[in-house]
Amino acid sequence: MADGTIAPRTGRPLSDRLDLRLIAEMVEPRSRVLDIGCGDGALLEILLHEKEVDGRGIEIDMGEVARAVAQGLSVIHGDADTDLAFYPDGAFDTVILSRTLQATERPREVLAQMLRIGRRAIVSFPNFGYWTVRLALLTTGRMPRTSALDRAWYDTPNIHFCTISDFFDLCAMDGYVVERWLGVDDEGQRTPWRRNRRLANLFAEQGLFLLSRR
């Protein structure tokens, strides 16, 4: 967890989001990193400060891009669905997509592009198989709200929900190697059942995967 450390490059305190910390653990020091949907650059700040990476970001929200650039971060405006095709093969060691896969129009194509331009991909997403989601649908018959899915159905960018089990199936179908994976709870911490797919699919609010190609 962040301890109030100030990032010398930006002058901001490093983020205390635990899911970002878990992602940072999977990134190799001094590697080339692209963070897709990077927001205001919170994860890039952690990686630059603690892993000394060559970090770049793309973000579709111009307001977030402006905030990141104002902090001296290398972030450009871009859309994961269309702009990854312009990057050359193997341009990065690791490509990251944090809590954004479900908001892309073509998630399968986005994953393929990530593993074309990077040796590894790190993907996190809200797990639609989470028990509170199932319970809300069962008891209320309405679209559920959780900390990871915190916007009303008519105001959400999320268009392709999936479960941890769904994501494992997609990786198997498209030939991706799951090098590491975690079930993450609603506070961003590892769950005690993170190595059991069936239990994680029920009790983890988020899935976090490190992928490579065969």
Classify the secondary structure makeup into a structural class.
Answer: alpha/beta
CATH superfamily: Vaccinia Virus protein VP39
Counted by DSSP, the helix tally is 8
The end-to-end span amounts to: 33 Å
Q: Please list the strands of the largest sheet in the order they lie side by side.
A: 3-2-1-4-5-7-6
Share in helix = 25-40%
Q: Main beta sheet, described?
A: 7 strands, mixed
| Rg over alpha carbons | 17 Å
Number of strands: 7
Task: Provide the number of structural domains.
Answer: 1
CATH architectural label? 3-Layer(aba) Sandwich
**Inertia-based shape:** globular
CATH class label: Alpha Beta
Q: Helix-strand pattern, N to C? A: HEHEHEHEHEHHEHE
Q: Low-confidence parts lasting 5 or more residues at pLDDT below 50?
A: none
Can you give a write-up of this model?
This protein has 214 residues and is an alpha/beta fold. The chain has helices at 18-25, 42-50, 62-70, 80-83, 107-117, 131-140, 164-174, 197-203; strands at residues 32-36, 54-59, 75-77, 92-98, 118-126, 176-184, 206-213. The chain has a single domain (18-130, 162-213), classed as Rossmann fold (3-Layer(aba) Sandwich). Strands 3-2-1-4-5-7-6 form a seven-stranded mixed beta sheet, sandwiched between helices. Helix 2 (42-50) links the parallel strand 1 and strand 2 (54-59). The radius of gyration is 17 Å and the shape is globular. The model has no long low-confidence stretch (mean pLDDT 89).
